[in-house]
Amino acid sequence: MTAAVLYRHGGPEALQLREDWPLPSVGPGQVLVRVSAAAVNNTDVWTRQGAYGLPGRPEAKAGWRGAVDFPRVQGGDIAGVISETAEDVPDAWVGRRVLVDPAFYADAGEDAVAVGLLGSEADGGFASYVAVDASRVHDMSASPLSDQELAALPVAYGTAMGMLERARIRSGETVLVTGASGGVGLALVQLAAARGARVVALTSASKAASLREAGATATLLRETEPAGLQSQLKAVAPEGLDAVADVAGGPWLEQLLPAMRDGARWAIAGAVAGAVITFDLRRLYLHNLSLIGSSMHTRAHFASLADLARVGTVHPRIAASYRLTELHAAQEEFLRGTHVGKITITP
Questions:
Q1: Within 13 Å of residue 310, how many CA atoms lie on the same side as its CB?
Q2: What's the whole-model pTM score?
Q3: Which of 16, 53, 115, 261 can bridge 58 by disulfide, Cβ–Cβ 3.0-4.6 Å?
Q4: Can you list the residues of the chain whose pLDDT is less than 70?
């Protein structure tokens, strides 16, 4: 079969297209999924680059959870059709259109945290076929979403769902989303708006209109100097923020913490704008604020996302589509960061 195979940490040359990669074998409790569509994420690029570091060694080349076993077929986003099942899996699954949960979990509980990812700790969806545990697949036979829209969901929308659930975002609340035009950021805007929240999106001027189309009530320009940004935020959220869904990190915590009302929650799932920050701890404890780390989703979060996909509550925006043989070009466009929405891959 065709597969994009990562042989080591490095640049694009470390990821090679193979036309002769062996078809995955189906083990006990597994199904074979013929991939209809996949999508590009930061996780794919950072794993290739080895950009995650290790505890006490930020310069070390490593994947999200440490060492990566090479060679590895990347790709955490997978939508497809089941073509084969193991003997202990009902053959009624054959032919069903499915969405694949990419996470490995700490234990068997519905609320267990994610501790690994397809495409990193096991082979993923940048291939014609992938073998996965049957417990990962969610039936999408009735979903109105296209294959590419389904493939846009697992990593970005799963991460966003985890943030919104952990921050307890409810209808009627005002939530600020940083990095709102990226994959997770746009997912946050759509999912928060779908549950009735009032969304303020922090983005660039060129992408503000797209964020309003996605459901943002107001947009703030990240190019604005701090005093001006705080003044704009006061105008659009005069009573303060109930929550912040932050995928950027960096200076935003220090700058925007004063805009949070008592008892507000700040969920963070990224640090592209800076991993090491300073802020006034007194603002945190005197106002009973919550700072929540959120990495991906739980089984329960993903099941809720799958329910939304079945009825088409949210339609992911597809910014561009590439063939699997054009994966390098897809990642180049992804890294330029000029797009809004997801870049998808079809085999």
A1: 12
A2: 0.93
A3: 53
A4: none
